[in-house]
Structures are given as C-alpha cells and as structure tokens.
Amino acid sequence: MIEKTLKGKPAYWIWLAFLGMFMAVGVACYVRQYLFGLGLTGMSRDVSWGLYISQFTFLVGVAAGGVMLVLPYYIHDYKVFGRITILGEFLAIAAIVMCLLFIMADLGQPLRALNVVLHPTPNSMLFYDMIVLNGYLFLNILCGWVILTAERKQVHPPKWIYFFVYLSIPFAVSIHTVTAMLYCGLPGRHFWLSAIIAPRFLASAFAAGPALIVLISLILKRVANYDAGKEAINKLVTIMIYSALLNLFFIGLEFFVGYYSNIPGHKETLQYLFFGLEHHGHVYNNLVPFMWASIIFMVGSIAMLATPAIRKGNEFLLGLACLILFTGLWIDKGLGFVFGGFVPNPLLEITEYIPTANELGIALGIWATGFFVLTLLYKIAVNVEHEIEH
Amino acid sequence: MDKQRRKFLKIAGASALAGIGAPALVKLTAGSAYASTHGAAPAHGAAPATGHAEAAPTGVRLGMVIDMRVIADHPALLDKAISSCTEAHNIPDFAGDRKNEIKWIWKAPFGSVFTEHSTSHLPKMVQDTDFAVLCNHCDDPPCVRACPTKATFKVKANGIVAMDFHRCIGCRFCMAACPYGARSFNWQDPRPYVKKYNPDFPTRMRGVVEKCNFCGERLALGKEPACVEACKGTGAIVFGDLNDPQSEIRQILDREFTIQRKPSLGTKPSVFYIV
Ligand code: SF4
Ligand code: SF4
Ligand code: SF4
User: What are phi and psi of B160, to 5 degrees?
Assistant: First the structure.
C-alpha cells in the first residue's frame, strides 16, 4: 500500500514540500543544538523542561484522543465511525512519532537514549512511559495496517486483530495516565502534585484529539473528496464539548483548592500563570496573556460548537471552532502546564522561560515531521477508500 | 578484622572522623543485632511514631550538621567551603549567569532554604546570614526514584546519593523530582569554564546532570569532604555517620536542636542545620 504515497496531485506534492522545508529547518537547528548542547534553548537550571517536553505532553494527549473513535466503533459497534476511525488510528501514529522525536530532542545525551532499555528502572515513571508509548505506537501501526489491508481486499479483518484493537484501548488511557504520573508524583512541585492531573489530561486529550480529527476530516472532504460523514462529525463534536467542559471544570477545581485553602504552594503557580507572581518587587507574568487566551479560546469554541447553526450548518465555522479549541487546549497543556510547574522553583525564586529561535525551529520541524507522516498515512487511507468505492 | 576495618575506612572515610572508627566497626560487624534492638525501640518508647519519623537505622548513613551560628559569626567560612568544593570538583564558573550555573554548595537566604518554616519575626542573625545549601543526600531520594537509568543512585554502603556521569542521558527528570533544587545541568560544555583544573576529579561533558556527591572520591581516600576540611576546627560543618550513636555528629544531634529542609515531604534529608 505504501506505493500510494508516491502518486498524487500537485497540491499533495506542494504540501509535502512545504512541510519538508520546515523539516529541513528543524534538522539544521537540531544539528546546531547537537553540536553545542541544550544551552541553545531557553531552558535553565530553574526551568529545566521547556517546549520539547511540553509538546511531548500535549501530543501524548492527541495520540490518546484517537481512542474516542476506536472505543465506540469497536466496543459499541457504532457503525457511523466506520470511515473516521482509521483517521484516529493514523493520527495516533503520527502523534507518537512526534512525541518520541520531542523526547529525543530534549535529551542532553541522545546517543545514550538506549540506557533506558539497557538499565531498566521500574521505579521511574519514564520507564513505563517508554513501554506504553512504544506499545501504543506498535498497536496502532498493526491495527491500522491489518484492518486497512482487509478493507482493501474487501474481506473481514482476521479475528486475532480484534485482540490488539481492544488492547489498544487501555493503552490509550495508559499513555496519558503515565505521562501525567511523570508530573503528579513529584514531591515539592505543588502545581503538579495533584491527583486530578491524570483525569484532567485525559479530558483535555479527548477534546484535543477529536478536534484535530474533525478539522482534518473537513479538510479531507474538500481536498481529497473523502467524506467521513456528517453524523460521525456531529458525534465527535458532542464528545469534544463534554470533554472540554470537563477540562474546564477540573481547572476550576484547581483554582478552588488553591485559593480557598489559601496554601501558598497550591496557589503560587496559578497566580503566576493567570495573574502574575510578585517576587522582590518584580511581577513575573510572561504567561498571563497566553493563559487567558487559552480560557477564552476554550470557552468561546465550546459556545460555538454548541450552537446548532454552526455545528450542523456551517463547515467553515465548525472547522474554525475546532481550531480555536485545539489551540486553547494546546496553550493550556502544551505551554502553561509544564512551564508553570517550575515557577516558583524549590527555593521560591523565579526564573522565567522564553524559548529561543533555535528551539522553536526544532519544535516546528518536529511538528512538520508529524504532519508529513500523517499526510502519507492519510493518503494511503483515502486512496484505499476510493479504490473500494470504484 | 583488619581487612574489614580498611573496607569501612574506604566506604565511610571514618579515619578522618575523630576516632569513631572502633565503635563504627563493631556496629558494622554486629549490624543486624544492633538494628533489631533499635528497631523495636520506637514501638515501646514514649515518642509516638509520626509521619516524619525515620525508620530504625541500619548500616552507615553519612550526614552533615551545619552550624549556622558559627557561619553567622564567620561568614568567610562559607565562602571558603564553597571555593574548596569548586576546586575539588572542577565546577565551572559561569560568572553569575543564572541560566548555565552549576551549583553544588551555595548560599541562599533562610526563607529560600527553609520554605516550610515561618519567616515572620526572624532574629537579625537569621535575616542577615546566608545559609549553606547543598544536596541533602536524602534517605528516600525522589531523584533516585525518578531516574530512568539508575545514573543517580543511592550507595548502599554509606547512604550517599551518587551519580554516574557516563550513564546519565540528560533527561533532567531528576531535576524536576528534587524538591531542594540541588541539581544542575550542563547546558553546554563546562570545561572551558573550569577555572582551576583538578586532575583528581573528572570534568563533565555537556548534557549531563551533576550535584554534590558528599565527596565520595575523597572519602574513599580517607579524607574528609572538601567543605568540611575548609572549615576545620570551627565546628561549622560536621560530617559523619548518623547511625552511629558514638559519632561526633550524633553527639551534636543528640545535644542540639536541629532542623532539616522540607521534612514534610518524607525525603528524610541527611543534612541538618543548627540555626
Ligand atoms: S536533595 Fe535532591 S538531589 Fe539530593 S538526594 Fe535529595 S532529592 Fe536527590
Ligand atoms: S538526567 Fe541523568 S541522572 Fe537525571 S534522571 Fe535523567 S538520566 Fe537520571
Ligand atoms: S560534601 Fe563535598 S561535594 Fe558536597 S558540598 Fe561539600 S565539598 Fe562539595
């Protein structure tokens, strides 16, 4: 089936070339970073994780979001998701590829990455994250491929594959739970030390993943003549609305605990993220505009999605709402959650983090790589569907 | 006997610790009996076991008492301790650049060091004195728990939380996990910034984490930690086996009221402060 990626309209090639350009920039930036060290990033002793790990965290969610298609389709035999489920599975593959690249970009000694395997350490959450991420990647490649091959031959997929399909469901939940556990098990990082992090991650993932899938479905409908079906999209939008609301609810609970208990440790990071934190007469508030934009984006897009005229009638506005929601969730988890956790530092000092151009170049390169992989995978999926129709 | 004694000297550097060698040796050889009698004690004792209480001691657990009263009177001592650590361990000097700085032992105000303690109405001495900050060599270290490669590990023989610079992948999970900000990362090649090179200790490459190692390499040679040696004779920093009731450090701990950093986190720091 791979040969399908080699034939396409000019627009397809232009799009790939466009992504390839960013990938090349990413590679060049990475070579610079590799030769000099992570000092080329904006990270510091105090904010020791930055854009790479935050993108990783967010993208694990995007990957896990695919389960919102797999679960109804395979467990509840929800036929409407017949054409869209493969999009979810392939999105998960591309997202995990990005996750792994972001981890590699973040390592100070990337050539030693295999030490995680050579010296397995079961008390480290990163060890489990490695297992579930690679497991989920493998499951999605396997299931996506076998089922698509069967579809192409117009036969039923082999029975054994369903074992792996069902297995991928707990794996999807586990990748984001374990990723949450990277953070919520650390003593002394009060913002992260909250049992609600894992559920909050899942809620935001189940909104962000489907938002991207709906957006892509709408685009595919125009550029590739691939219609996932109105009803499927409508159902996904419902899932998104509830998940995004849950995420907002969880954020609200964090605010309540912090501000009502009035315990400084529980409050300070929220204060930093949303209002600015004062320290020695200086107010640190780098992220404040972003965080409020995130809240406005999330609330605004939920309102848009809940409006029947937009949801059912206007594809452009529907796509826009998905994009806004995705962006809002990205700021919330893909920026604020990780950066904020380091402020204040364990000695109650404040260092702010601003990514450097080189760092942004690498991050963009990895995102472009993800979309490159995604494009190839979707090209295959769409062509197979077209083949069946003819 | 002699062989065993030498072994102890190597692991704990006991020879340098004011004649505690003999009792420590007894303890080492009769380890289990000693541990069991002590283990039973809290159950019958008057002191109720609290969440922050420590388990019965077993083996050697190296620790440190920093007497801030002495340092308040002689602030230069702390500078001396810091520079001797810098020289002993080839710690690069980035001239105050907060982004790159590598710190093993450094100065910070009381409020930063003891974030769980009240800072209202502090006596003048506490307000005006810079406190020494270094890795606590926690008995239950979160950095070790987090490390995915065992590049950070606890040395069984003496409780030191040590690092293998050649195994570290530079994921910085341990930095997020340490609640004391004790770890530094080499954001770039540190070698050009090492002021005075000491051939007895390895320099680090970029991309790895480092921190105070309780001078494991000096203890192995029977020497005291560099910072302790720098304050010799003043009692500013006392180093020794926390599990040995006869040791100098234990006698100080038994006599003086000491505090540890963030005891509520259950990490059981091995560095104690007299304020
Ligand atoms: S102080 Fe930090 S680095 Fe040192 S042992 Fe404790 S957790 Fe680890
Ligand atoms: S940076 Fe090195 S020492 Fe720290 S957790 Fe990663 S591998 Fe372990
Ligand atoms: S014990 Fe050794 S490594 Fe630790 S601060 Fe003192 S001199 Fe430095």
Answer: -70, 135
| Amino acid in position A171 | F
How much is the pTM?
0.90
In degrees, to the nearest 5, what angle opens at C-alpha B182 toward C-alphas B177 and B184? 90
d(CA B183, CA A322): 41
Q: Cα–Cα distance between B85 and A97 in angstroms, integer? A: 43
Q: Which residue has the tokens 């796509």?
A: A319
Query: B265, B42, B230, B8: which is closest to A189 by C-alpha?
Result: B265
If you take atom 4 of ligand 2, which residue's CA is the nearest one? B174
Q: What is the pLDDT of residues A341-352, one digit of tens each?
A: 999 999 999 999
Provide the pLDDT for residue B74: 94
Taking the alpha carbons at both ends of chain A, their separation in whole angstroms is 17
The span from the CA of A374 to the CA of A101, in Å, is 15
Amino acid at B159: G
Of B114, B159, B143, which Cα lies nearest the Cα of B273? Answer: B114
Please name the residue that has the structure tokens 């200086």: A282
Domain that holds residue A123: 2-389
Question: Chain B contacts of A342, Cβ < 8 Å?
Answer: 176
Architecture of domain B3-25+55-274: 2-Layer Sandwich (3.30)
Compute the nearest-CA separation of A352 from chain B (Å).
Answer: 10
CB contact under 8 A, B150 and A112: no
Q: Which residue is listed with tokens 């409908």?
A: A221
ipTM above 0.90, yes or no: yes
Per-residue pLDDT for A223 more than 90? no
Q: What is the pLDDT of residue A229?
A: 85
Q: How many CB atoms lie within 10 A of CB B40?
A: 11
Task: Write out the DSSP string of B217-252.
Answer: HHHTTTPPPHHHHHTTTTTSEEEEETT-TTSHHHHH
C-alpha–C-alpha distance, residues A327 and A318, integer Å: 14
Q: Given this model, what pLDDT does residue B55 score?
A: 58
Q: Report the pLDDT value the prediction gives residue B56, as an integer from 0 to 100.
A: 58
* pLDDT digit string, tens, across residues A87-107: 999 999 999 999 999 999 999
Q: Which ligand is nearest to the CA of B137?
A: 1
Work out how many domains chain A is built from and give that number. 1
- Residue A187 corresponds to which amino acid? P
What pLDDT, on a 0 to 100 scale, did the predictor assign at position A104? 96
Region of residue B61 (phi > 0: left; psi between -120 and 50: alpha; otherwise: beta): beta
Q: Identify whether the C-beta of residue B222 lies closer than 8 Å to the C-beta of residue B13.
A: yes
Count how many Cα atoms sit within 13 Å of the Cα of residue A155 in the half-sphere of its side chain. Answer: 7
Pocket of ligand 1 (CB under 6 A): B 135-138, 141-143, 161, 178, 180, 182-183, 211, 267
- Find the CATH number of the domain harbouring A275: 1.20.1630.10
The tokens for A285 are 């508030």
Question: Is the distance from CB of B240 to CB of B248 less than 8 angstroms?
Answer: yes
